[in-house]
Amino acid sequence: MDVYFLRDNKSKLFVPAPPTIFGHPLSTIAEEGESAFFMCQFRGAEWPVSQIRWLRNRIPLVNSNQMMRGYSGATQVGGFVVSHHPGPQFLHPQRVISFPENGTLKIEPVQMGDAGEYTCEVITPGHPSTESRPAQLFVTGKL
Fold it and tell me: Which structural domain, as residue segments, surrounds residue 46?
């Protein structure tokens, strides 16, 4: 972890290093009803200083942990939950789990409507956010 400290006789200042993505998510194929995983690896200040936000088709995803922290006023449309206020749109919260400490996104069970382009965004205070290259999720139907 690259962290810089400035010291004088009176104070200490923590300045996180800017994030750089070195492990971009990879495109994957998942069968409907199975699990899909994406990983995002970066250098810089670790979680919880740096946060990873996942996007599907350029729209931020919200997982079940975020639902509990105040995202309300939503309606399910197909396999997706659609917010009634400006801001993130998200997959059904019981199907999407983000593990911020290691940059993993898990979608389970995958539905046909989950297909699309996924990117991760690393957000570190004091620096511009950094976005990964896109990865595609291809969903095949059950036979």
Answer: 3-140
